[in-house]
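Chain A, query sequence.
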Amino acid sequence: MTSVLGVVGLGYIRLFQMPVIPYIFVSLISGLGKLNFTVAKGIFIKGGITLLSLWIIIIFVLLLIPFGFPRWESASFFSTSLVEPEKSINFLDLFLPSNPFNAMANTIIPSIVTFSVAVGLAFIFIPEKSIVIEVFSKFSDSLMLITRWVAKLAPIGVFAIAANAAGTLRFDDLERLQVYIILQACIALILSFWILPKLITVLTPIKYQDIIDSVKNPLATAFATANLLVVIPILVDNSKKLIENIKINETDTDEKESPLDVIIPASFNFPSMGKLLSLGFIPFAAWYVGSPLSPTQYPSFLVAGIAGFFAGGTLATTFLLNLFKIPADMLTLYITVEIFTARFGTLVAAMHTVVLGILATCAIQGLIVVRRKKIIRFTITSILLLALTVGSIHFIYTYFFPSNYTKNQILSNLELLRGRNPQPAKVSKTPPIIENSAAQKTSESRYEQIKSNNLLRACYLKDDYPFSYFNSQGDLVGLDVEMAHILARELGLKLEFIPLEEGVHERAEIAAYLNGNYCDILIPALALTPQATEVVKFTHSFSNRTLAFVVKDYQKDQFSNWQELQKKTNLRLEIPGNVPYYIAKLKGLLPNAEVVVTKRNIRDLLVANSHEFDAIVLPAENAAAWTILYPSNAVAVPQPIVSIPVGYMLPKNANSLADIIDVWLDLKQEDGTITSLYDYWVQGNIESVKEPRWSIIRNVLGWVK
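Chain A, predicted structure.
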């Protein structure tokens, strides 16, 4: 049922997005082009300074928001975004388009805004422009009409989005969402009823109570309807009355010539504080998935975010999620949360409109009064109020409402995805005793022996999350365990799993199991190296692993770049497994580091004193699973990434067996089996196999299965 609603919700989103790009283009051109030079100059200078001042306030607020997120344990399954090459932001390409139409086709919002503003400014100096401006104005009106038509579908669209989100949202997800909603609500109220109105009283003779009395009714209407447009006329009128109450010359207060009539409509071409407050969702989304934005990412976030919000929240959020490699499905969560936060955003936007209009008009008419003591007192009080609010939310949710961390249970409870009716399998938990003898010789090939015995024996590594491990029910599971089940079933063989002795990491020791005829294949897949092929045979590579480090959360940024790591002295790295080829590669990348091959298991390393070593070297795919079990640790993937091809290890002379498995692996690649298992075990995409939550439609009425 939720899948149907998801399609309806997606259609609604796309209908809303459809007129956005053309609207930015024509509305900016018509809004700026209709101004004359004198009016435009005054508005641009005084209005621009006022708008920038308000943006500085909201930027400070956005930087403060992440401090409100509680200290909850968080981790996530492996995501391909972890190993994507780092995208550096080219601000020239972002803001200065060489081809504006390419920018429109690829929804590069900042470039579209730059081009539109440039054309609008050029029209100011063109005579006989009224016909063209009128065409653009009517085009803008038609696009706004489309938006209004789509808005009439809001009950259906919003219901579909909310219902789909509610149907797929877990309780622990809802816990995290309420933190963001409460943060947004508290900050919106502080901005609307303290910071913004007090800013007027500090810089003009207008009294605080007069401002509140004047705007309380339109603010209530804006909050109730979540629509700023319906209160614009009354906000303009009330703002004029507030300015009239200041004792100035009659000629300076002529309503017909009031800059308010231009400033407020023109301000709709620029993101309001209410809109920009929604930018707080991006650091929240990053925290939500367990990869908070680093301090170095905030300048890009703020610049691209403000420019992106010229297009509106949904399109800008999509752009920013992609920019910072946050999973795209967070967009649905954003739209769901906006149902609750949009009213608070509209409240701030309404107050922003009043403040921008009054302060810019007073600046143009010379009515601004700078009183340093008052400004300093107001600034300190506002900062303390915001800090106290954000700090209180952080403290309350950290210590009084701590989150129940459940990701480790999800990993521990996973069952075989496709092996619901697996081949009969015997799972041994005691490793065999390996005799020091040469490989057994026989006239039969290894595959002929397997067929004769009707048995495939797979050696496995214990605790190799998420490829081979025992779940909470005591069953041997994992991606490569499941691959072994599928291989045995499709070859019509019984299956036996035989453990390797704990602490066996040397390739020669592993080869003894295979060449000594104790097992026929080793799982999980291991790194292909020239040295290993001297003693065993590999299938061809069917997947890659990525060289990564497991570090403490606070150290993650320190391990994000190879060049920065090369500058570190006394760097000690523990690697659980002796793979000379990649150890040499690691030493080549970090010549000053001490690389220690250890026989300690990964659990011991993860709970060890952090002073013993700086990082554990593991593939990112394994590391992500271990950080789910030990969430105080994090995965760091240095850029540029180092990719490691892997394959299954086979006995040295098992050529026919290798040929068969190679063909089988090709088939599993083509039919999507490997991809679906990778998504399930490594990336944790388990929604398709989760038991649906109880519902009236399914469990009572029986309308759906």
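The first strand starts at residue 425 and ends at 427. The longest helix spans residues 330-364.
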